Amino acid sequence: MAVVAERVSERRGTRSPAFRRVLPYIEGGALVVALIVPMVLSERTDLITLATNVLILSLLAISFDLCWGLSGIMSFGQALFFGVAGYAIALVGRDLEFSELWGTLPLAMLVGLLLAALFAAFLLLGRKPPTTIFVALGTLTGAYAAERLVSGWQYVGAGNGLSSVKLLKIGAYEFVEGVAFYFLALALLILIYVGARFLKRSQLGLVLAGMRQNEERLAFFGYRVQLFKAVVFSLAGLVAGLGGALYSYHQGFIGPGNMGPGLSTTAVLYSLLGGSGTLIGPVFGAVTVEVLSYVLSDIDAIKPIWPVILGLILLGVVMFQPKGILGLFVSDRERIGSYGRRRRDG
């Protein structure tokens, strides 16, 4: 592994050749752009709404990257945790007249965490290690079943979903579409991103990196690989749950399509397009897909076929650049990560 090669070179008193980290610069640049977006687009409320939506969907993208990019879990059901949490806070607002930020957002995160933990118990913690296909189909089936269930359940609006979701608020202040909601979504995205980055650089992250390289060897050394996967899968559900709550409040609506295979597959595309395993890559993927969708759907000449054009663009990137957009700039060594302190020569 890259980490082993680095340590061997350090013991020999040499440095690994020409290794420079680029992710911190990409992350810093992305943060600067995100901070100035409201000032640049202050006159375009539609674009502020689009940018806010991108930030929220980036939480879903990060939740998938925690599963696949960091842990090797191919989940086609991340939208399930996203949508169920969105429904939960919408029902709390409708039936209990409660939409305080300090109560509903933690509730949504808890719903996502517990639901993901339940799926992890069935799919990951069996007597035999599950295959990638088994987990992928299990999560896909869960998302499809949930979508069909709510589509026929009148209590949650059936196929029409839940509309007129109460506004998110803190005390007397209500968050509506606009700059305030944008910065709220940005702040929460930054907190989640920093937490995910810390997880990746922690000892748990080291185990996850080892799992991606050689899962069987780690299991031979006594690591309970599936338990580690279950923990990360549950945390990914928490992140998706937060995204679902913000989406429900921001759109004022949550429907069956927000928890089905369609949105789950979109989350996979975000990650593969941007570059899985980097955390920031799926965010770039979400930005690219959503902005392209907005631009192409607004061109009169291609309105009937813009989804086909978008699909061909995404297919071309995935085929010819399997490591995603950031794979052009980020080396495998940096994407996998290095751990421990470096020794300084002399």
Question: Uncertain spans, ≥5 residues at pLDDT below 50?
Answer: 1-17
E-strand count: 4
Average of the residue pLDDT scores: 87
Q: Fraction of residues in helices?
A: 55-70%
What is the spatial order of strands in the main beta sheet? 1-4
Radius of gyration: 21 Å
Query: What is the helix/strand order?
Result: HHHHHHEEEHHHEHHHH
Which range does the strand content fall in? under 5%
Distance between the termini: 26 Å
The main sheet comes to: 2 strands, antiparallel
Overall shape: it is globular
Which structural category fits the helices and strands?
mainly alpha
Number of distinct helices: 13
Description:
The protein has 346 residues and is an all-alpha fold. Helices cover 68% and strands 2% of the residues. α3 (45-71) runs parallel beside α7 (179-201) and α11 (280-297) packs antiparallel against α12. The radius of gyration is 21 Å and the shape is globular. The model is unreliable at 1-17 (pLDDT under 50).
Features:
346 residues; mainly alpha; two-stranded antiparallel ribbon; 13 helices
In short:
This protein has helices at residues 2-11, 23-40, 45-71, 78-96, 101-123, 132-151, 179-201, 203-220, 225-251, 261-274, 280-297, 306-320, 332-336, and strands at residues 162-163, 169-170, 173-174, 253-254. By secondary structure, it is an all-alpha fold.
